[in-house]
Design a protein that fits this description.
The protein has a single domain, classed as Hotdog Thioesterase (Thiol Ester Dehydrase, Chain A, Roll), CATH 3.10.129. 16% of the residues lie in helices and 34% in strands. It contains 2 helices and 6 strands; from the N terminus they run ββαββββα. Strands 1-2-4-5-6-3 form a 6-stranded antiparallel β-sheet. A hairpin with a 2-residue loop joins strand 4 and strand 5. It is globular, with a radius of gyration of 17 Å.
Length: 172
């Protein structure tokens, strides 16, 4: 995985729940075009975190949670986005909190429920829920197609391992 859309894991309850955060920074290149200033129309720049990347942050949080159940031996891939609702924009300077909960887990895969909140870093209020993303994951080695996949875990790689370790969670 080349792009990480979570910065730190705050909580990991194996087989149940994971909480991660994403700090949105104007240093992120994608924000400069989403949405750039339009001087011809008199519009200032309005950098907004794309909803697709917010959803990817939840997919990474949920995928780590699902993969951890099998000690990352299974190749876990996103199979379906059941619900994706982003109700509010997220801007540079915001911190997003992703909370993923396993709803169902079996040998074929898992389904998760995800809540996305924008944190109030000034301590003046409660976190604001800005979205919900429910996902389904598949264990690709248990697919019905009969196709074989490479032995290395192509979804959960060294970057996620480093993220968990730097967040204080021991790896097996």
């Amino acid at each position: 995985m080349r792009w990480m859309w979570i910065d730190r894991v705050l909580e990991l309850v194996p087989g149940e729940r994971m909480v991660a955060i994403k700090n949105i920074s104007l240093a992120e290149e994608h924000l400069h075009e989403h949405f750039a200033a339009d001087p011809e129309r008199g519009l200032p720049a309005c950098p907004v975190m794309p909803a697709s990347l917010i959803i990817e942050g939840m997919a990474q949080t949920s995928g780590i949670l699902v993969g951890q159940v099998g000690a990352f031996r299974e190749k876990v891939v996103l199979a379906k986005i059941s619900i994706a609702r982003i109700d509010r924009d997220a801007f540079p300077g915001d911190t997003l909190r992703y909370t993923a909960t396993i709803e169902r887990m079996d040998e074929a895969g898992a389904s998760t429920r995800g809540v996305i909140e924008r944190l109030d870093l000034h301590g003046q209020g409660e976190p604001e829920q800005i979205g919900r993303v429910d996902l389904m994951f598949s264990h690709v080695d248990r697919n019905r197609s009969g196709l074989a996949f490479p032995e290395h875990n192509f979804v959960f790689g060294e970057s996620f391992r480093t993220l968990l370790q730097s967040s204080g969670f021991a790896m097996e």
